Batch of 2 targets.
Target 1
Amino acid sequence: MLKIFRPTYHAQSVYDIDINFYKKHGFKNVIVDLDNTLDSYKLFEPSVQAKELIKRLLAAGIDVFIISNNHSGRVNRYADSLHLPFLANARKPFKKRILQYIAMMKIDVAKTVLIGDQLLTDVVVANKIGLSVVLTEKIVQEDQWTTKFNRLFDRPIRKHLRQKELLPDWRN
Ligand SMILES: [Mg+2]
């Protein structure tokens, strides 16, 4: 299996990961995907659990950035409600826009973990850049059509990784 698809860690959900995980690994920054990682693409405002998660991370001294392939209208509104910096139209799995953003925000790659629900976008771009990455399962069933297409490839690769025990649990 190509290394580019292998996440550093796996979690059922971003909401399962406790603060000690970040401390243990020295992660000072979290780059988090929006759709189906934090909330459904149908939700325009952050859920209560998203708000609480962000509050907990910031209180622990961890900076949070939202990086999404979705359009700026959607991402802007959502991130603004959380008072978080963000990058919309990120074009994952291409690394150019994210590298520019990382440089602009002076994000230390070695102290950063990316968290996302998709192998073909989130995991691949993190591996290209050399970021640690937590792959999650999607939090709701519904996906946008572009994501549905990616899932056709994501599903068998994920299954293969699971069978080969290449989805290390975040607790380990
Ligand atoms: Mg997503």
Note: The chain has a mean pLDDT of 96.
Target 2
Amino acid sequence: MRAFVKGSSEPLDGAVRQVDPPRPGPGEVRLQVAACGICGSDLHALRSDPGFEWLAPPVTMGHEFAGTVVEVGDGVVDVEVGARVAAMSIQGCLDCAVCRRGTTQLCPSRVVVGLSYDGGLADEVVLPARHLVAVPETVTLEHAAVAEPLSVAVRAVLHEPLVGPGDAVVVSGPGPIGLLSARLAQLGGGEVCVTGSPADVDRRLAIASRWGMHTAVVGEREPAEVLGREPDVWVEASGAAPALRGAISAVRRGGAIVVVALYADTFPFFATEAVRKELTLRFSYASAHPEYVQALALLADGSVDAAPLIDRFDLSDARDAFDAAYAGSAVKPLIVPSPGDGSKQAS
Ligand SMILES: [Zn+2]
Ligand SMILES: [Zn+2]
């Protein structure tokens, strides 16, 4: 079968290879992958950026995927062949105090499918049945692959919600998680302004406009000016340290900031400014099982439409999908292995 493999620690050493199809061990299932997204952490991982030294290539990448169960290993009782499922990307041990608190994504022994072990950028993938989420009938498996980034937005925006009806909300960073967070803030009654760079205008900010949101290009117009008032809530999804610093200055007294991005840089932080404004500053990392279920429910009832974000690529063209993502010309590249091609040959 075909798999997109990061071959070594050399930056950008990744290609589609023929590999042996995996077999499920006890407690595991084998999925035929229907769709697998590529996200920012994949771009960092393939480039062997700082923070990804722990990877042990060769490894098949891909952690945002959905598919159909085609084989179950010994001891799997709650998942059947034919089930339509989405994978949880960050997988806790489910046994430690952190996992028992419900925050499996913070587990000290967590692993990530597609980084720690072979993932879903392939015709087939094997993973533990306990890290699967059932996909509702009305959600296509392609859209279900977007449940992973949507679940991250759900945790940032809806888990302990900060956005109320009529609130002015800024979302900095119009990548998939920023756009999905903006949509959830809008569903919560917020008047939303999404900010981005000039390069984001044609694709990413256009999606925000189509969803009825305001947009602003950083350096051209302040979001507070676009909204006509100081923001009540700011969701920082860009990963640019100046954006977080700007949020602390711009949010109204008593307002809130949710940080859902990861940063390559540090920055000086004058806490007194935030104290005197009595800001709520909250950090949100990835997601756990309840947020996946909620994400799939939002896709099922039409509250969130994943379609505008998706750029489809065949599995054989996975490398082109990475290049399009590096160039910023794709929003959410989605690898769609074509059944009857690689996967059927392999079985
Ligand atoms: Zn991801
Ligand atoms: Zn744990």
Note: The chain has two domains: 2-149+287-346, 160-283.
